[in-house]
Specification:
The chain is of the alpha/beta class. It is built from 15 helices and 17 strands. The protein has two domains: about 5-170, Leucine Aminopeptidase, subunit E, domain 1 (3-Layer(aba) Sandwich); about 190-505, 3-Layer(aba) Sandwich (Aminopeptidase). Helix 3 (about 90-105) packs across helix 4. The structure holds ligand BES, manganese (II) ion and zinc ion. The site of zinc ion has 5 residues, from strand 9.
């Protein structure tokens, strides 16, 4: 579902909507229009600030219902603490928080946010305004298409959908132009969330591929490979996972060539797109298995990222490759003990059919290198439950053969709030997937499950190719609600990778 909130910027002097929220810093200095409002209401605002002991602390707020002598129905004051210390991520979160406040009580379909901040210069104030707007936009995302009865769920915010948000800022024009790119990124995040939230009966490999194909509208060059083509290419490892499902596999290759030089090497993003993971014959227990509709979170992120890059006309060449399969149980499913081949030529003994993501990614990694010889490869996958045990939902696990790329991602993680934590790789871990029966086996035993999964992937990465594997099993799905996301799918990674591209690899 596309983001439905319309965002506009207006000057501080234009009229506020009946429901307004004023973001104030701890100086509590009222700007001109607020002073006027305060005066007209016989000092009601400044008295409320005093009476409620409002200090402007972050996320503290007071609400003034129907301020006298005004057209307002509700005026909310929201703290922003010290604007000089706040990061862009703080503003993003605050925008989301503000949107949550405005959505809580139904009043009107339009509301305004007044950024009443002292001590910001005009450059940063446009950035601040745009980040606040992006936060609000991300917060407005809802996945309620299958709820036919509205207003049933008490703790949800859909009762009255806010349709339009007007941000009153010092320089609306420059805020608007800064916001354009952030809006494109938010749309990418929303696409990722949609794909993750969609249940597997509605989103199989074909339906996912159709969503990839739709990126052609943004100017992305999209190619979809069907089963026959995948067999001809030689992606036997990926196909072994798909063979138990009645729904055939697809691989989508999405290219965005926005760099000035069309020949400059591509950045490559690869995603695990298991539309549902039963575990196969090594079947998962029933409890919580429904979550495995999110096992395409890596592919969803890659797809959302490609949309974001195209929609904001990123000056970069990038290719996104997603492997779309379903891991099912059937008379034709692969068995434990099967030995399969891969596009790389290496053979794999399948000890556990539930370790399927790595089988999908292996062929995509080989394909990416053969076909594109990219500048780097970053793959994303909801690969192991073990990464949740190690890192919880705070950080995605990062595995890499390249310090520079790892450090860049770590830095971008801190800036965007989509944090990564580097985990080790080494010969000793690699040995754990040796087997006497084939070149490797697909599991390494009980210990270090996330690391042996990464070692498996690394066997498909050529020496000298900068590569990062992000294990997003803890961050892509089953998300805790927060200021900028209330849905099950987080859209994790789109902002992180877009930021990496924008700050380190563009132009
Ligand atoms: N898709 C799962 C990993 C997963 C678990 C993602 C929880 C999100 C939440 C993956 O395919 C899997 O089943 N991994 C196994 C590997 C094991 C068989 C070596 C796991 O983590 O148990
Ligand atoms: Mn699995
Ligand atoms: Zn899986």
């Amino acid at each position: 579902m596309p983001l439905q909130l319309e965002i506009e910027f207006a000057s501080l002097t234009s009229k506020f909507e009946p429901k307004s929220l004023v973001v104030m810093d701890s100086s509590l200095a009222l700007n001109k229009p607020m002073q006027r409002l305060d005066k007209e209401s016989d000092g009601q605002i400044s008295r409320a600030i005093k009476a409620m002991k409002f200090t402007g602390k972050v996320k503290s707020s007071i609400s003034i219902a129907v301020p006298v002598y005004s057209d307002l129905t509700n005026l909310i004051l929201l703290g922003a603490s010290d604007p000089a210390k706040a990061t862009s991520n703080d503003w993003l979160m605050l925008g989301g928080f503000a949107m949550g406040k405005l959505s809580q009580s139904p009043a009107s379909k339009t509301a305004s946010i007044v950024l009443d901040l002292s001590g910001l210069n005009s450059d940063t104030s446009a950035d601040v305004a745009a980040s606040v707007a992006q936060g609000a936009l991300l917060r407005s995302y809802k996945f309620d298409k299958y709820q036919t009865k509205k207003n049933t769920n008490k703790d949800d915010e859909k009762s009255e959908r806010l349709e339009k948000l007007i941000l009153h800022v010092a320089d609306p024009k420059s805020a608007q132009s800064t916001f354009e790119r952030l809006k494109a990124i938010a749309e990418g995040v929303a696409l990722t969330r949609d794909l993750v939230n969609e249940p597997a009966n509605h989103l199989g490999p074909l339906e996912f591929a159709a969503q990839c194909e739709a990126l052609a509208e943004d100017g992305v060059d999209v190619e979809i490979f069907d089963q026959e083509q995948l067999r001809d290419i030689g992606m036997h490892s990926l196909l072994a996972v798909a063979q138990g499902s009645d729904r055939p596999a697809r691989v989508a290759v999405m290219q965005w060539n926005g760099a000035k030089s069309k020949r400059s090497k591509q950045l490559c993003f690869i995603g695990k797109g298991v539309v549902f993971d039963t575990g196969g014959v090594s079947m998962k227990p029933a409890g919580g298995m429904e979550d495995m509709k999110g096992d395409m979170g890596g592919a969803a992120c890659v797809t959302g990222l490609m949309h974001a890059l195209a929609a904001r006309q990123a000056q970069v060449n990038a290719v996104g490759i997603v492997g779309l399969v379903e891991n099912m149980v059937s008379g034709n499913a692969q068995r434990p003990g099967d030995i399969i081949s891969s596009l790389s030529g290496q053979t794999i003994e399948v000890i556990n059919t539930d370790a399927e993501g790595r089988l999908v990614l292996a062929d995509l990694l080989t394909y990416a290198q053969e076909q594109f010889n990219p500048r780097f490869m970053i793959n994303l996958a909801t690969l192991t439950g073990a990464i949740l045990i190690a890192l919880g939902k705070e950080h995605a696990g990062l595995f890499s053969n390249d310090d520079k790329l790892s450090n860049e991602l770590a830095e971008c993680g801190l800036t965007t709030g989509e944090k990564v934590w580097r985990m080790p790789l080494s010969k000793a871990y690699d040995k754990m997937i040796d087997t006497p029966n084939a070149d490797m086996k697909n599991v390494g035993g009980r210990l270090a499950g996330s690391i042996t999964a990464a070692q498996f992937l690394q066997r498909f990465v050529e020496d000298g190719m900068p590569w990062v594997h992000l294990d997003v099993a803890g961050t892509a799905m089953a998300s805790e609600k927060n200021d900028i996301n209330q849905s099950w799918g987080s859209g994790w990674g789109v902002r992180l990778l877009d930021h990496l591209v924008a700050t380190k690899y563009e132009k």
